[in-house]
Amino acid sequence: MCTDTGDILYEMQADDEVPIASITKVMTLLLTLEAVEAGKVSMTDIVPISEHAYNMGGSQIWLEPGEQFTLDELIKAICVCSANDAAVAVAEFVGGSEEAFAEMMNQKAAELGMTHTHFVNACGLDAEGHYSSARDVARMSAELLHHPKILEYSQIWMDSLRGGETQIVNTNKLLKTYPGTTGLKTGTTSKAGVCIAATAQRDGMNLLAVVLGSDSGKERFESAATLLDYGFATYELAQFPAIEGKAAALPVSGGVARTAPLNYSVPKTLLVAKGESAGLTATVQLAPLLAAPVAAGTQAGKVTLKSGDTVLAEYPVTIAQDVPEMDFSSALQLMLQAVSTI
């Protein structure tokens, strides 16, 4: 996936519902950063460590009930060493309990259109009814990347906690082996196999590769690198070309205003085949005259994007503002306004 545009470049069994291990923590991190940005919690808050969080198995930083950790430190532990105990402690802090937080996770998944996902816990340990799909993982990973703060954590290779007593090393070995890697999350359990949501940036283009159910860490990283290589070798980002014939407004007959402003629903950037950006053109077709009343959102034309003679896409041009029909009352009001400015 190109996370700049949302385009899927390659997929295979993308909607299969499978365990995703610690890639679950992508959603945990997303909800946590949303809570921070909403002012509900702060990075400097001290997060209580419960017996429940302490008893988490799998990868961990061996939290002890009563220990003092800031939210910032626990997010780092989640991102770098995939600490299950840290993820559950954060979930309890943000959601009140892990069960309540799981409900928040499922609500967010529904909002994102993740129709092949259901969460039971915040860390990704194997559990009945806890699953997702490659497409849904891509969706929530792309959403997490809308919060640039995450990249400050996901690109850390080595760090420490407890004043240097606990050393942590990133589980994402692509940070050392694949140039341009920016994140994002690994995961491994007996049922999920070996998984990764890998992100990388080259020449201003951001790609995401999701690999689920690999047999080994080596296979996981090689598969992700192969997918990223394909994307970077085959595609490039291009700026949307200047629109030939573009007008800011259209004339209106019989309205309280003589013109109606236009809204051009075109993207700033496009994903195109490598070398295709130089040949992009955009032209617009507009209605010559509008008759009042004209409602905002009404389509008044279209922009056609081409590469050479090939049409790549069409985008609507709509009315940006209502233009009511002129009647006696509105005409009188306009006349009075004109008189008052003399």
Folded structure, characterized:
The structure is a single chain. This protein is an alpha+beta fold and 342 residues long. The protein folds into 2 domains: 21-235, Beta-lactamase (3-Layer(aba) Sandwich); 243-329, Peptidoglycan synthesis regulatory factor (PBP3), Domain 2 (Sandwich), CATH 2.60.410.10. The chain contains 10 helices and 16 strands. The strands form 5 sheets. Strands 9-13-15-16-11-10-14 form a 7-stranded mixed beta sheet, with no helix packed on it. The chain is globular and about 75 Å long.
Low-confidence stretches: none
Order of helices and strands: HEHEHHHHHEEHEEEHEEEEEEEEEH
- The general outline is globular
Work out the number of β strands. 16
User: Distance between termini?
Assistant: 60 Å
Q: Helix coverage percent of residues?
A: 25-40%
Instruction: Tell me the domain tally.
Output: 2
Spatial order of the strands forming the largest sheet? 9-13-15-16-11-10-14
Mean pLDDT: 95
The H-level CATH homologous superfamily of the largest domain, spelled out, is DD-peptidase/beta-lactamase superfamily
